[in-house]
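A favour, since you know our structure tokens better than I do. Go ahead and set the record down below.
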Amino acid sequence: MEAAGPEHRAEKWAPVFNESDATSRITHADRMDGIYRLQRHVYDATRKFYLLGRDTCIAGLAAPAGSRILETGCGTGRNLVLAARRHPGTWLYGVDISAAMLETAATSIARAGLRGRIGLARGDATAFDPQALFGVARFDRVFMSYTLSMIPDWQGALRQAAALLAPGGSLHVVDFGQQERLPRWWKRFLFGWVAMYEVTPRADLQAVLAALAVDAGLSIDFTPLVRGYAWSAVLRKPATPA
């Protein structure tokens, strides 16, 4: 039987940094640590101006009390803290490949007084075992906020996220769009700038999400935000098999 919530597995709630044996994953983890070892201290203050749609995504989780919510690519923990406050009575879990980011997340969560509700673990978005990390096999909500544009195997990360949904659960995604209704000069500037941080907006995100929905038997709602600056999607798993 799964534990009712994080407070029953207190030994897990210090960050659990599980190292991967795959060289490519370690290399990616090292790159992320290198990029964010210093930036993590100002990340939330600066990203709020251009990571549009994050708060709308979190509000859209609409998670009732007792729900288990997973964020893949939890970064500084900012989203987990907000989600915990927006959805009382829920249990939250965050996975990230960057040890530096997880250190900041642990501090932020402790400062918010939410260590009893939020668990953290280090893992690769494409291949982690939530049962081993958290004692939880499936989640009622999974969300990914501006992470797919930073994950090399982002399609694998999406498949992993969809596979972790409990019946009746939903996967919520928000990330950079293709700026399709904004000036071309803006797209060149934005994409050139974020590339310095190893961020690559995924031009085929909508098509990949649509294919995943078909393969996994999920419904999908896809919404461009701010004239295509960001793209948002929700994939829902039926409560009972079709």
